[in-house]
Predict the structure.
Amino acid sequence: MDRPDLSGSVGLSVSVRRAATETVVSLSGEIDMSTVPRLAAAVDEVLSEPTPRVVLDMAGVTFCDSQGLGTLVVLSRKATLTQSYLVLVNVGAFLIRVLDITGLRNALMIQEA
C-alpha cells in the first residue's frame, strides 16, 4: 500500500510503502539535526504495527550528519525491540565510508547490491 509523502520541509522526503513481509521507507535528501525527527516519526509509525522487516531505502540520501547516524542506530535497536529488524539498502559510498570511519557499520544491517 502506498502512502503519501510525509515530508514537511525541503531537507528530507520520506515515503512509506507496506507489503506483506516488509515495509519500505524511501528517503530522499539530507538526514541531519533538522530532519531526524521526521525520519524517526516515520519509522516509529511503521514499527507501531507488526512488520518483520523495515527497509530504509537510502538511494536518495545526499548527506547524513552525526545526529542522523545516531538516529539510524536508535531506530535499528527499536526495530529489534519490536521483533523486527531494520535494514539499509542502496547506501551510497559516502555513507558507507562514514559508517566505516565511525565504526557504526557493524551496528547496522546493510544490504549491499
